[in-house]
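seq as requested:
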Amino acid sequence: MEADCDVSGPDFAIKLIVAADVDGDGRDELVLIPDAVFGRK
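struct tokens:
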């Protein structure tokens, strides 16, 4: 696949997509939030 954004690796659906300047360069990046729970059990 030649996509700019490929989330086919993990078996999680995307819960939320946010466009924000997260690295301070003045340009927005896409932040993809998976619909999954991570952490210790």
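The first strand starts at residue 14 and ends at 20.
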